[in-house]
């Protein structure tokens, strides 16, 4: 379809996301008309007032959490065209710019004042508050990728970010002072791990865990395929879920052929039903196996799938990657919606003009059967926003993704599923918090939004954090609480040996939504909740305790 903007001052544009500057004050009716491929049109209008007395929009943001002295804080304002910014940080310091940084050397509560001046000379104000404390405790934990391994197997150790020092005692006479690293034990035994953390307030906390190194450890064999039914002549890809370099892989494809890698491609030469088996032998010499039946015939269609990177909105002359995720990549046809096509499996393509383009991928297998997948892609005519730089902090009961502000951004979006779905964040929010399940990793990508640029800015690199949480493997903070039965079908009993009284019980789902809130109770009823994982928080008089619970039926 096509887009036509009428700005009400004699100017127009066919850009889906245009910018426009009015030369004179007044009231202007802006109309946008959309015309589809059938020639049918629909219009929508609104009124814009251009006035010398128009006030700028002022909004200041700083982290709402207390910080230690000498922490470099990022302080940002809502961006605007032609705005100038003046900051009063409340400690005698000042700054300029929409995105600024400041360090407080003393404790206290500081009121930050932002003044914003627009091109009309009009001024607006906003305030924010930051608390600086030098007695903040360490909010820490430790993560081990596994608690039972074979000798020489690699174990991943992770501690929270933003600490001033790390000291790992690995229990075998060796130490490490980095936040994250891999380590292999050469001897069998039970090793007590000790992690000492120091934060910016010089507070210290010590955490413990145990890892078992044994020659009897079993690694579970699992593998994946694109389909269970293939056409004769199609190449089938088999991938082991566990690809540790210490493992030995042995494939039996059920037709007399074998393989020995973590990933194997195989071409069955006759129709039939084949029992494919993967034998996985770990570093202890212990073997596990798994089998799956693969059907090869002459009537099965391929499964078409595609991905567009980095995202579904871009600018002219920006390279865009088109990735074929289909089960058969041997015979493909890309149609990019601009008159260009390609038969390459994976490639980059650029668009010279703004517009909305319907991208179609068609794949044909060895039986001559086809399947297709499609995706709408929007090309805007304006400059592109920079990509945010994202970091993440693994907390005891959550993961927080955060990033610095991007010049020109009027908002931000975050994706937790590799760009398939995006969540728009409110009020120029520069962080996003999720709850998780013990040992599960979460990856996030962030992009800016801005009316003066491409609709969506460049996407950040994917950042992954592993949620430590309170899992069924008893990664706990305190041992004065028992929730049982766990897993359970909906009714859970709470017993605490703590000296302080239980005040409130809250239950959250994995998106942080409150499912239940109760007071002074020894039993909670979650029979109406869906099957899945939840986090329960017990508020005692002097502290909180978290547990991970699972509902099954």
Task: Write up what this structure looks like.
With 553 residues, the protein is mainly β. The chain folds into 7 domains: 2-50, Immunoglobulin-like (Sandwich); 60-132, Immunoglobulins (Immunoglobulin-like, Sandwich), CATH 2.60.40; 143-213, Sandwich (Immunoglobulin-like), CATH 2.60.40.10; 223-297, Immunoglobulins (Immunoglobulin-like, Sandwich); 306-379, Immunoglobulins (Immunoglobulin-like, Sandwich); 390-466, Immunoglobulin-like; 481-551, Immunoglobulin-like (Sandwich), CATH 2.60.40.3080. It is globular and about 80 Å long. The model is unreliable at 469-479 (pLDDT under 50).
Key features?
553 residues; mainly beta; Immunoglobulin-like; five-stranded mixed β-sheet; 49% strand
From the coordinates shown, what is the CATH architecture of the largest domain?
Sandwich
What is the name of the CATH superfamily of the largest domain?
Answer: Immunoglobulins
Identify the overall geometry: globular
Q: Which percent band covers the strand fraction?
A: over 45%
- Computed CA radius of gyration, to the nearest angstrom: 29 Å
The helix-and-strand class reads mainly beta
The total count of strands amounts to 49
Query: Order of strands in the sheet with the most strands?
Result: 13-19-18-15-16
What integer is the average pLDDT?
84
Q: How many domains would you count in the coordinates?
A: 7
Q: Can you tell me the residue ranges where pLDDT is under 50 for at least 5 consecutive residues?
A: 469-479
Largest sheet: 5 strands, mixed
Per CATH, what is the topology of the largest domain?
Immunoglobulin-like
Reading off the top of the CATH hierarchy, the class of the largest domain is best stated as Mainly Beta
């Amino acid at each position: 379809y096509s887009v036509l903007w009428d700005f009400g001052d004699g100017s127009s544009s066919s850009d889906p996301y245009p910018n426009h500057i009015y030369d004179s004050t007044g009231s202007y009716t802006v109309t946008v008309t959309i015309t589809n491929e059938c020639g049918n049109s629909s219009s929508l209008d609104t009124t814009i007032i251009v006035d010398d007395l128009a006030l700028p929009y002022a909004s200041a943001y700083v982290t709402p959490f207390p910080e230690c002295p000498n922490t470099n804080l990022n302080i940002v304002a809502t961006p605007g065209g032609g705005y100038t910014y003046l900051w009063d940080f409340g400690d005698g310091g000042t700054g300029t710019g929409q995105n600024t940084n400041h360090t407080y050397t003393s404790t206290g509560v500081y009121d930050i004042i932002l003044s914003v001046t627009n091109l009309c000379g009009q001024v607006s104000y906003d305030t924010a508050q930051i608390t600086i404390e030098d007695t903040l405790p360490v909010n820490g934990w430790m993560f081990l990728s596994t608690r039972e391994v074979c000798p020489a197997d690699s174990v991943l150790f992770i501690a929270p970010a933003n600490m001033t020092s790390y000291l790992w005692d690995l229990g075998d006479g060796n130490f490490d002072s980095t936040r994250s690293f891999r380590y292999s034990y050469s001897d069998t035994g039970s090793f007590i791990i000790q992690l000492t953390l120091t934060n910016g307030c010089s507070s210290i906390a010590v955490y413990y865990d145990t890892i078992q190194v044994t020659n009897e450890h079993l690694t579970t064999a699992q593998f994946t395929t694109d389909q269970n039914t293939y056409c004769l002549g199609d190449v089938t890809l088999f991938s082991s879920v566990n690809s540790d370099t210490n493992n030995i892989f042995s494939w039996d494809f059920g037709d007399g052929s074998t393989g020995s890698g973590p990933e194997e491609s195989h071409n069955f030469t006759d129709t039939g039903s084949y029992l494919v088996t993967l034998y996985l032998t770990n570093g202890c010499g212990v073997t596990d196996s798994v089998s799956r039946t693969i059907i090869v015939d002459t009537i099965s269609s391929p499964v078409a799938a595609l991905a567009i990177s980095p995202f579904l909105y871009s600018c002219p002359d920006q390279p865009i990657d088109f990735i074929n995720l289909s089960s058969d990549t041997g015979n493909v046809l890309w149609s990019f919606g601009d008159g260009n096509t390609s038969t390459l499996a994976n490639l980059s393509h650029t668009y010279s003009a703004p517009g909305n383009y319907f991208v179609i991928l068609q794949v044909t297998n060895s039986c001559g059967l086809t399947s297709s997948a499609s995706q709408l892609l929007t090309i805007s005519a304006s400059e592109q926003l920079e990509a945010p730089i994202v970091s993440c902090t693994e907390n005891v009961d959550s993961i927080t993704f955060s990033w610095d502000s991007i010049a020109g951004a009027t908002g931000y979006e975050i994706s937790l599923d590799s760009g398939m779905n995006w969540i728009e964040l409110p009020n120029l929010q520069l962080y996003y918090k999720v709850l998780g399940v013990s040992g599960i990793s979460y990856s996030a990508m962030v992009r800016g939004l801005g009316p003066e640029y491409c609709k969506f800015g460049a996407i950040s690199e994917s950042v992954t954090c592993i949620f430590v949480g309170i899992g069924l493997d008893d990664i706990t903070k305190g041992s004065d609480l028992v929730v049982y039965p766990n897993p359970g079908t909906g009714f859970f009993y709470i017993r605490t040996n703590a000296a302080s009284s239980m005040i409130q019980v809250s239950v959250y789902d994995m998106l942080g939504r409150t499912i239940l809130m109760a007071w002074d109770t020894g039993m909670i009823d979650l029979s109406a909740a869906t099957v899945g994982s939840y986090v329960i928080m017990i508020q005692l008089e002097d502290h909180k305790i978290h547990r991970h619970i699972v509902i099954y039926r």
